[in-house]
């Protein structure tokens, strides 16, 4: 009973705000506020509020949510242990035995040599003299030149 009263009050306040917003000639915003303010009354009339309030105050429902949380936690723990241990899952395909180690696997296959860690750096180019303070893009240009763009 109190939930229905609260939902009705929230809807009434929302419709009042929508009326004030429409009075200020902001009809799109007023329509959006009116739509949001009608949702609580719609939930009351469809019975969703009664169902949720009946569910929230039952200890057996909370025990069920606790068990769901425990099951989820156990799934997460087993997946974490499985990944750390490197256990083989039945039916899973074996990993490729490609050379290069984990650092090479983390890079896209079509990446260029410098991003693969080839060790060779491009020769430094001649730097321009600092630009005048009016040039706001000089720092951006320097970064782009540094990366060869």
Oligomer classification: single chain
The largest β sheet comes out as:
none
Distance between the termini: 67 Å
Spatial extent as radius of gyration: 31 Å
Q: Strand fraction band? A: under 5%
Pick out the low-confidence regions. Answer: none
Structure description:
Helix content is 62%, strand content 0%. It is an all-alpha fold and 149 residues long. The radius of gyration is 31 Å and the shape is flat. The protein starts with a helix and ends with a helix.
List its traits.
single chain; 149 residues; mainly alpha; 62% helix; flat
Provide the fold topology.
Elements: H1 2-23, H2 27-46, H3 48-56, H4 59-85, H5 101-105, H6 138-146
Helix pairs in contact: 1-2
Short overview:
By secondary structure, the protein is an all-alpha fold. 62% of the residues lie in helices and 0% in strands.
């Amino acid at each position: 009973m109190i939930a229905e009263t609260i939902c009705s009050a929230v809807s009434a306040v929302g419709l009042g705000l929508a009326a004030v917003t429409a009075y200020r000639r902001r009809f799109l915003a007023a329509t959006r506020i009116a739509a949001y303010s009608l949702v609580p009354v719609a939930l009351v009339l469809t019975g969703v509020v009664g169902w949720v309030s009946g569910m929230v105050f039952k200890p057996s429902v909370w025990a069920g949510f606790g068990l769901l949380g425990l099951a989820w936690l156990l799934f997460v723990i087993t997946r974490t242990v499985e990944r750390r241990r490197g256990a083989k899952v039945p039916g899973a395909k074996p990993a490729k035995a490609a050379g290069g180690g984990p650092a090479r696997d983390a890079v896209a296959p079509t990446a260029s040599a410098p991003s693969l860690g080839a060790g060779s750096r491009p020769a430094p180019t001649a730097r321009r003299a600092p630009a005048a303070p009016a040039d706001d893009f000089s720092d951006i240009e320097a970064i782009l030149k540094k990366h060869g763009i």
